Amino acid sequence: MLNITKSVEYSLIAIQHLKQKDRTNLSTAKDIASRYNIPYENMAKIMQKLCKLNYLGAIKGAHGGYYLKNRTPNIKLIDFMESIEGPIGIIKCSTDSNCNIYEICNIKKPLNKINNNIRNVLNKLKINDIIKEGWSNGKTKFWRNYYLNRKCR
């Protein structure tokens, strides 16, 4: 099964949360973690990484927190995901040519075709396409409850 990693998922949750605020209304990693039932340590690391990648800005101090940089919603989803997790591929040889059966593999061509199709879809989407779809038109309450009631995360 293909899955988006927790790091990418939590990153998108944080970006959506910050998108709903203006730059004067900052959020801390603790605020976001507690609101969406995400382990604080994970969220803190993700927020730091998003700052290093220049997706978020941070203000230090007692009243500090994070804010969304203006360019972030316009970044292609594939670029965002790969900046967090590295190259995306459904099989290891699609991102790493260090395979000892690559030359004789009889499924590499169809799997590479699937992989390329997935990459093309992710290349056409921007972060804004993802976060506005799931959260617009009054769906915030639904999604907040979804994240609060998750059992296996």
Molecular structure report:
By secondary structure, the chain is mostly helical. Helix content is 51%, strand content 5%. The chain contains 7 helices and 2 strands. It has a two-stranded antiparallel sheet. A hairpin with a 5-residue loop joins β1 (56-59) and β2 (65-68). The radius of gyration is 18 Å and the shape is elongated.
What is the chain-wise order of helices and strands?
A: HHHEEHHHH
Strand content: 5-15%
Shape: elongated
Tell me the total number of β-strands: 2
Radius of gyration: 18 Å
Strand order of the largest sheet: 1-2
Helix amount: 40-55%
Number of helices: 7
Instruction: Provide the low-confidence segments as ranges.
Output: 135-144
Average pLDDT: 83
| Spatial separation of the terminal alpha carbons | 16 Å
Major sheet details: 2 strands, antiparallel
Structural class: mainly alpha
Describe the structure concisely:
This protein has helices spanning 6-19, 29-35, 40-52, 77-85, 108-124, 127-135, 140-148, and strands spanning 56-59, 65-68. The chain has a two-stranded antiparallel sheet with strand order 1-2. It is built from seven helices and two strands.
